[in-house]
Amino acid sequence: MKSLLVMLLFSFGLVTTAQAEEALSVTPQETLDMVQQQGDQVLFIDVRDPVEIMFIGFTDAVDLNIPFQMVDRTRFNEDKAVFAMDINENFVAEVDAALAEKGLDRDSLIITMCRSGSARGKPSADYLLERGFTNVKYVDHGFQGDSLKEGPQKGMRLKNGWQNSGMPWTTKANPEKIYRP
Fold first, then answer.
1. pTM of the model
2. Per-position b or e across 32-56, b if 16+ CB within 10 A of its CB
3. Is residue 77 part of a domain?
4. How far from the centroid of its chain's Cα atoms is residue 110's Cα?
5. If we measure between CA atoms, which residue out of 139, 142, 173, 171 comes closest to residue 159?
6. Predicted confidence band of residue 36 (pLDDT cuts 50, 70, 90)
7. Could you give phi then psi for residue 7, rounded to 5 degrees?
8. How far is CA 28 from CA 9, 61, 75, 137, 172, in A?
9. Boundaries of domain holding 122
10. How many domains are contained in the chain?
11. Residue span of the signal peptide, if any (predicted)?
12. At residue 118, does pLDDT exceed 90?
């Protein structure tokens, strides 16, 4: 049904090709392979808040950390027991600058990665597609992966994702790549 709606909107000119498309996922291994084989033609960005990276870990395979959403420590959601997160108003400009630094443009491959892949990885990739970038993907299950549903480690993020797929990572963030506004 969604496909039919998108096709109708596209045929009437109400959405562009980039708007009609959703970002596709790539596995951690596919991402690492692309970075190693064609790194100068790919922009790989970690879209997590830098404080999150400090506590969870980092991979130097990324070009940069450019947060898609930033934690607002002045607004706390009592019901969910979490701080609010707002879209980084400079996100698109910072991605454009990172592309330019590598001699790339908005048609170049961009891969985003967040903690789980779904909360900011895919949304950040879709956000870029909606703003004129044409080749954006996200890392499936993100950096930390999914939570276990059963067993003594239930709730811990020990399934899939970058960390649990044997990809290179460290507990220390690279100071040259971490976001500092």
1. 0.85
2. bebbeeeeeebbbbbbbbbebbeeb
3. yes
4. 9
5. 142
6. very high
7. -65, -40
8. 34, 11, 33, 12, 19
9. 16-164
10. 1
11. 1-20
12. no
